[in-house]
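To make this tangible, we now present a fold written out as C-alpha coordinates:
***
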Amino acid sequence: MLKTPLVIVNFKTYPEATGERAVKLARIIASVAKKYKVAAAVAPQAFDIYRVASKVKIPVLAQHVDPYKPDKFTGWLLPEAARESGAIGSLVNHAEHQLRPPEIELTIDRLRELGMASIVCGRDVETSREVVAMTPTMVAIEPPELIGTGRAVSKVKPEVVSDTVREVRSVNPRVRVLCGAGIASGEDARLALKLGAEGVLLARAITCASNPRAAISDIVKGMVKRR
Protein backbone atom coordinates (compact mmCIF):
# COMPACT_ATOMS: atom_id res chain seq x y z
CA MET A 1 0.00 0.00 0.00
CA LEU A 2 2.79 2.41 0.91
CA LYS A 3 6.04 2.30 -1.02
CA THR A 4 9.32 3.90 -0.02
CA PRO A 5 11.03 6.33 -0.15
CA LEU A 6 7.83 7.99 1.01
CA VAL A 7 6.73 11.52 1.79
CA ILE A 8 3.53 11.90 3.81
CA VAL A 9 1.98 15.35 4.02
CA ASN A 10 -0.33 15.82 7.00
CA PHE A 11 -2.91 18.50 6.18
CA LYS A 12 -3.81 18.94 9.87
CA THR A 13 -6.63 21.52 10.08
CA TYR A 14 -4.91 24.28 8.16
CA PRO A 15 -7.35 26.39 6.09
CA GLU A 16 -4.92 26.14 3.16
CA ALA A 17 -5.65 22.40 3.07
CA THR A 18 -9.37 22.30 3.79
CA GLY A 19 -12.23 21.47 1.42
CA GLU A 20 -11.48 22.06 -2.26
CA ARG A 21 -8.10 23.50 -1.29
CA ALA A 22 -7.25 20.04 0.08
CA VAL A 23 -7.94 18.56 -3.36
CA LYS A 24 -5.83 21.22 -5.07
CA LEU A 25 -2.91 20.61 -2.72
CA ALA A 26 -3.18 16.82 -3.04
CA ARG A 27 -3.08 17.14 -6.82
CA ILE A 28 0.07 19.22 -6.64
CA ILE A 29 1.74 16.68 -4.35
CA ALA A 30 0.69 13.79 -6.60
CA SER A 31 2.00 15.57 -9.70
CA VAL A 32 5.40 16.34 -8.19
CA ALA A 33 5.77 12.85 -6.71
CA LYS A 34 5.04 11.29 -10.09
CA LYS A 35 7.54 13.56 -11.84
CA TYR A 36 10.37 12.59 -9.51
CA LYS A 37 9.26 8.98 -9.00
CA VAL A 38 8.92 9.29 -5.24
CA ALA A 39 6.00 7.73 -3.36
CA ALA A 40 3.65 10.21 -1.66
CA ALA A 41 0.57 10.10 0.55
CA VAL A 42 -1.63 12.75 2.12
CA ALA A 43 -3.59 12.90 5.37
CA PRO A 44 -6.53 15.31 5.07
CA GLN A 45 -9.16 16.04 7.70
CA ALA A 46 -11.82 13.36 8.17
CA PHE A 47 -14.47 15.41 6.34
CA ASP A 48 -12.15 15.71 3.32
CA ILE A 49 -11.01 12.09 2.95
CA TYR A 50 -13.63 11.15 0.35
CA ARG A 51 -13.28 14.47 -1.45
CA VAL A 52 -9.51 13.98 -1.83
CA ALA A 53 -9.43 10.21 -2.38
CA SER A 54 -11.93 10.46 -5.22
CA LYS A 55 -9.76 13.00 -7.07
CA VAL A 56 -6.16 11.78 -6.68
CA LYS A 57 -4.42 8.46 -7.22
CA ILE A 58 -1.88 8.67 -4.41
CA PRO A 59 -2.71 6.98 -1.08
CA VAL A 60 -4.90 8.91 1.34
CA LEU A 61 -4.61 8.45 5.10
CA ALA A 62 -6.86 9.42 7.97
CA GLN A 63 -5.29 11.67 10.58
CA HIS A 64 -6.82 9.59 13.37
CA VAL A 65 -9.27 6.74 13.90
CA ASP A 66 -10.75 5.27 17.05
CA PRO A 67 -10.30 1.57 17.90
CA TYR A 68 -13.97 0.62 17.94
CA LYS A 69 -16.23 -1.56 15.84
CA PRO A 70 -19.52 -0.30 14.39
CA ASP A 71 -22.05 0.19 17.19
CA LYS A 72 -23.39 3.01 19.37
CA PHE A 73 -20.41 5.35 19.18
CA THR A 74 -21.71 8.79 18.30
CA GLY A 75 -18.94 11.21 17.37
CA TRP A 76 -16.14 8.65 17.15
CA LEU A 77 -14.14 7.99 13.96
CA LEU A 78 -14.32 4.35 12.90
CA PRO A 79 -11.69 2.71 10.67
CA GLU A 80 -14.50 1.24 8.55
CA ALA A 81 -15.80 4.73 7.76
CA ALA A 82 -12.30 5.89 6.84
CA ARG A 83 -11.86 2.91 4.53
CA GLU A 84 -15.26 3.44 2.89
CA SER A 85 -14.26 7.06 2.29
CA GLY A 86 -11.10 5.99 0.48
CA ALA A 87 -8.41 5.97 3.18
CA ILE A 88 -5.88 3.13 3.02
CA GLY A 89 -4.72 3.63 6.59
CA SER A 90 -4.28 6.17 9.35
CA LEU A 91 -1.81 8.13 11.38
CA VAL A 92 -1.86 6.97 15.00
CA ASN A 93 -0.74 8.75 18.18
CA HIS A 94 0.33 12.01 16.57
CA ALA A 95 1.77 14.43 19.13
CA GLU A 96 -1.35 16.56 18.71
CA HIS A 97 -3.66 13.60 19.30
CA GLN A 98 -1.85 11.28 21.67
CA LEU A 99 -3.16 7.93 22.87
CA ARG A 100 -2.33 5.65 25.77
CA PRO A 101 -0.31 2.53 24.84
CA PRO A 102 -3.35 0.17 25.08
CA GLU A 103 -5.29 2.48 22.73
CA ILE A 104 -2.39 2.55 20.29
CA GLU A 105 -2.26 -1.24 20.19
CA LEU A 106 -6.03 -1.56 19.76
CA THR A 107 -5.98 0.94 16.92
CA ILE A 108 -3.15 -0.88 15.15
CA ASP A 109 -5.04 -4.16 15.55
CA ARG A 110 -8.29 -2.70 14.18
CA LEU A 111 -6.51 -1.25 11.16
CA ARG A 112 -4.75 -4.55 10.53
CA GLU A 113 -8.08 -6.43 10.69
CA LEU A 114 -9.33 -4.22 7.87
CA GLY A 115 -6.18 -4.52 5.78
CA MET A 116 -5.25 -0.90 6.49
CA ALA A 117 -1.87 0.68 7.20
CA SER A 118 -0.89 2.17 10.56
CA ILE A 119 1.69 4.94 10.78
CA VAL A 120 2.39 5.33 14.48
CA CYS A 121 4.15 8.44 15.76
CA GLY A 122 6.73 8.12 18.52
CA ARG A 123 8.05 11.05 20.52
CA ASP A 124 11.45 9.49 21.22
CA VAL A 125 13.53 6.35 20.84
CA GLU A 126 11.95 4.63 23.84
CA THR A 127 8.38 5.27 22.68
CA SER A 128 9.23 4.09 19.18
CA ARG A 129 10.74 0.88 20.54
CA GLU A 130 7.58 0.29 22.58
CA VAL A 131 5.18 0.76 19.68
CA VAL A 132 7.18 -1.27 17.16
CA ALA A 133 6.48 -4.33 19.31
CA MET A 134 2.79 -3.74 18.44
CA THR A 135 3.67 -4.36 14.76
CA PRO A 136 2.48 -1.20 13.03
CA THR A 137 3.15 -0.68 9.34
CA MET A 138 5.48 2.22 10.02
CA VAL A 139 6.88 4.23 12.92
CA ALA A 140 7.40 7.98 12.52
CA ILE A 141 9.89 9.47 14.94
CA GLU A 142 8.66 12.98 15.84
CA PRO A 143 10.06 14.81 18.87
CA PRO A 144 7.08 17.07 19.71
CA GLU A 145 9.23 20.04 20.68
CA LEU A 146 10.42 20.33 17.05
CA ILE A 147 7.06 19.94 15.29
CA GLY A 148 6.22 23.01 13.23
CA THR A 149 9.44 24.81 14.16
CA GLY A 150 11.33 24.42 10.89
CA ARG A 151 14.18 22.98 12.97
CA ALA A 152 14.52 19.52 11.50
CA VAL A 153 15.15 16.60 13.81
CA SER A 154 17.49 15.21 11.14
CA LYS A 155 19.74 18.24 11.73
CA VAL A 156 19.10 19.19 15.36
CA LYS A 157 18.90 15.68 16.84
CA PRO A 158 20.24 13.27 14.19
CA GLU A 159 21.03 10.66 16.83
CA VAL A 160 17.30 10.38 17.62
CA VAL A 161 16.65 9.30 14.04
CA SER A 162 19.59 6.89 13.74
CA ASP A 163 18.97 5.40 17.20
CA THR A 164 15.28 4.91 16.41
CA VAL A 165 16.12 3.15 13.15
CA ARG A 166 18.53 0.86 14.97
CA GLU A 167 16.09 0.04 17.78
CA VAL A 168 13.14 -0.54 15.46
CA ARG A 169 15.15 -2.87 13.24
CA SER A 170 16.38 -4.79 16.26
CA VAL A 171 12.79 -5.45 17.35
CA ASN A 172 11.09 -5.90 13.98
CA PRO A 173 13.04 -5.23 10.76
CA ARG A 174 9.83 -5.33 8.71
CA VAL A 175 8.56 -2.11 10.29
CA ARG A 176 9.77 0.91 8.35
CA VAL A 177 10.82 4.19 9.96
CA LEU A 178 9.80 7.67 8.87
CA CYS A 179 11.26 10.93 10.12
CA GLY A 180 9.13 13.90 11.12
CA ALA A 181 9.27 17.09 13.20
CA GLY A 182 10.66 20.24 11.63
CA ILE A 183 11.34 18.75 8.19
CA ALA A 184 11.17 21.76 5.88
CA SER A 185 13.65 21.34 3.04
CA GLY A 186 15.16 18.88 0.63
CA GLU A 187 18.34 18.89 2.69
CA ASP A 188 16.35 17.96 5.81
CA ALA A 189 14.78 15.06 3.93
CA ARG A 190 18.10 13.96 2.41
CA LEU A 191 19.70 13.81 5.84
CA ALA A 192 16.74 11.85 7.24
CA LEU A 193 17.19 9.16 4.60
CA LYS A 194 20.95 9.18 5.12
CA LEU A 195 20.31 8.46 8.81
CA GLY A 196 18.31 5.36 7.86
CA ALA A 197 14.73 6.63 7.63
CA GLU A 198 12.70 5.46 4.63
CA GLY A 199 10.69 8.62 4.27
CA VAL A 200 9.46 11.79 5.92
CA LEU A 201 6.25 13.00 7.55
CA LEU A 202 5.65 16.74 7.40
CA ALA A 203 2.89 19.32 7.37
CA ARG A 204 3.37 23.07 7.68
CA ALA A 205 6.32 23.32 5.29
CA ILE A 206 4.01 22.22 2.47
CA THR A 207 0.47 23.11 3.52
CA CYS A 208 1.32 26.69 4.50
CA ALA A 209 3.93 27.38 1.85
CA SER A 210 3.41 30.39 -0.41
CA ASN A 211 4.35 28.07 -3.29
CA PRO A 212 3.40 24.49 -2.36
CA ARG A 213 4.65 23.08 -5.66
CA ALA A 214 8.11 24.53 -5.13
CA ALA A 215 8.12 23.38 -1.50
CA ILE A 216 7.19 19.75 -2.22
CA SER A 217 9.56 19.72 -5.22
CA ASP A 218 12.43 20.72 -2.95
CA ILE A 219 11.57 17.94 -0.50
CA VAL A 220 11.34 15.15 -3.08
CA LYS A 221 14.45 16.31 -4.94
CA GLY A 222 16.33 15.97 -1.68
CA MET A 223 15.02 12.43 -1.34
CA VAL A 224 16.00 11.56 -4.91
CA LYS A 225 19.47 13.02 -4.33
CA ARG A 226 20.00 10.54 -1.50
CA ARG A 227 19.56 7.55 -3.82
Notes: The chain is about 40% helix and 15% strand. The beta strands are 6-10, 39-43, 61-62, 89-92, 117-122, 138-141, 176-180, 199-202. The two ends are 21 Å apart (CA to CA). The chain has one domain: 6-226.
